[in-house]
From TrEMBL:
Classification via InterPro entries: IMP_cyclohydrolase-like, IMP_cyclohydrolase-like_sf
Protein name, entry field: Inosine monophosphate cyclohydrolase-like domain-containing protein
Protein source organism: Streptomyces zhihengii
Source species, domain of life: Bacteria
Domain Inosine monophosphate cyclohydrolase-like residue range list: 10-209
Amino acid sequence: MKNVLADNHYPGRGVLWCRTGNGDSLGGYFLTGRSPASKARALHRTPEGALLVAPSEPSAHDHLRHYVAARQSGQWLVFGNGEQVATVADRLDSGELPALALDGLDYEPDPPIFTPRLTVVADGRAGGRAWFGAARHSNGGRTATNRLTLEVSHLEPGEGVLLTTYRSDGHEIATGDPFTEVRITAGNRRGLLDELWDSLPPQLRIAAAVFSPGGLAEADVRQGAPAQS
């Protein structure tokens, strides 16, 4: 994972599902940013145990930058990079299965890059299954959303799947690859947070969190230094 992220000069936001060396199936979420507005954010715990991306200082709500990033919905852990997390969680609460709950989402209306909506639904029961959903803009001129769903199961310790909103060579920024299989060296949850945090560009780090299905209220969260105004 560290090599994959080191080759990406601006990953944006990312979702990770993996299995650490001790056999735990864990999710991870991170934010990086370049602009002052992007950096003026933090991960907050809500009284209900969810994780909320919100301003680090008082400001108006921006639906593209402020959202529920992770929420437990019965047996399902849902996390991602936008307001669609709440939509998917509500659908699961109503009885929809993960693949259907991830359907019908759209990419963010932020031209010219049209940021993908990335969402993970992880099963809290034994087996460590997870479904990744990505709502992406066409690489051409077509405006209709490309919706990709990936089911991941039977990960071995040290294996993971990573999605990032962007990829950059340091000059150009494009939408991230549909998904990337990565190797994890961490042996436990705390080690995974260290590995994820250390893999991100230091000058862009905003926040990261690692959590387990059913254990979102005890998520390990790390924040970057507050943005300077």
